[in-house]
Amino acid sequence: MNGKHRIPTPPHPQMRREALPWQQPKAAEEDPEALQRVRAILNSPSFRSADKDVDFLARDGVRGVRLQIDYLKPELLLEENEIDHTIVVFGSTRICEPGAARRKVDALRTMVAADPDNAELVRRLAIAERIHSNSRYYEVARDFGRLVGAANHTDRGPHTVVMTGGGPGMMEAANRGAFDAGAKSVGLNISLPHEQYPNPYVTPELCFTFHYFALRKLHFLLRARALVAFPGGYGTFDELFEVLALIQTRKIKPMPVVLVGEAFWRRAVDMDFLVDEGVIDPEDRDLFWYAETAQDIWSSILHWHDAAGAPLHVAT
Question: How many CB atoms lie within 10 A of CB 86?
Answer without folding.
Answer: 26
